[in-house]
Amino acid sequence: MIPPPVVQRGLLTLDRSLFRTTINVMALRIPASLTMECKKALGTDMLLEPKLRNVVDSDDGEKSKRLVLLNLSIINKDLDGASEKTKEYVKEKGIAITTSELTVGYDHWTADEVLRAILPEDIIDEAPSSFTTVGHIAHMNLKDDYLPYKHLIGQVIMDKNPNLRTVVNKMDSIDTTFRFFKMELLAGEDDMVAEVRESGCKFKLDFSQVYWNSRLHTEHERLVKMFDATDAVCDVMAGIGPFAMPAAKKGCTVYANDLNPVSYQYMVENKDLNKIKDNLKVYNLNGREFIRKATEDLEKSGYKRPPPPPPPAVQKGKKGAAKNEATTSTLDPTQATPAIAPVPAREEEAFSFKTFDHFVMNLPATAIEFLDAFRGLFRGRESDIPEPKKQLPMIHCHCFSKSDKPEDDVRERVEAVMGGRLDLDSVKLHWVRKVAPNKDMYCISFRLPAEVAFAR
After folding, report:
1. How many of the other CB atoms lie within 10 Å of CB of 30?
2. What are the tens digits of pLDDT across the range 24-42?
3. Which residues have C-beta within 8 Å of that of residue 106, sequence separation ≥ 6?
4. Which residues have CB under 8 Å from 243's CB, separation 6+?
């Protein structure tokens, strides 16, 4: 590897010219016709530096000649540092050994290498070259030690990632009301409106005004995969719709809400952007109010579960026989074809009362606090819900925990707010990600307990 040149540490302004450097490398002068054979014979004894050619025009002006540049570990015309195979090949072919000047500049090195060359030595162990991408925006979270050099760092990050147009730094913790970060521009355009793709959907958003975390895409996909295409889903803290949009495109009936008016506006816009029809209803309410409002609205709408999609058509052969190349029939052709049993309807189809199958509550800092809204949500409807363990909805609530026993910690907090015990058979705690050294994000899923749903 070519090390970056020694640059004056502690610079506050990036000077790319300081990274221009010239080094001498050993080279073999060969006929152009021998190039492929020579490269094969030398193997790793050739120069194998990223972004650099190891075969160049000869420096003596001979158009029929080439220079094959050698590994930096080969230091002289005796080829010290080369393999015996290389030495024998060069001797056998009578190849001339020479030196060549190689000039490299700022573009040759990675962001990490550049930052390690210019930041003070006492803070380069963890050079801040990592970031999260949101469309054309790089979002950094710089530690205090790096703040004096923040604009230089931002410029390096943008230089080394040509898909970026904007680099920002988070200034403080997440806004607890509307879930977005205050941020400052480090480099590039002051353009916070980005477009991203996730789960087969397009999302437009103003990153300075709404919450978006690309690291949660696997969690978004995990929950959406749990929903049947005929399910009704209530997304209580929907943001700009990372759960709601793909669920609606899947075929679910979705009622989605966010308190942030900007998130609401982008949810409406993203509904159109993804060509989603009337199976997605969008609200701008407080979470507690929305849980009751959406439940009432769904029932008033005369909602009936859509029929399940038809089974795939059976391909017919030339003589009308069922044709399936993936399997081989073992039926006795002398026997009558057995009747195909009808697919049974979902058990809950027998019940006249319909409500949401799933509630999603993706506000990990405070979502548990909103669970009291489910207390008495179906009070007086006991006769309509004779089998609550089948008819009452599943709740998926995101939260944080610092406990050594997160299963107990999260369950106990949920039960305390709801004022009732969870049915342990329905409870599942899923680890989502680590957000701090002693703080993890989880999603607890459980069936709404009857004693809570019917509470007076």
Report:
1. 21
2. 999 999 999 999 999 999 9
3. 16, 17, 19, 20, 114, 159
4. 220, 223, 224, 233, 235, 256, 360, 362
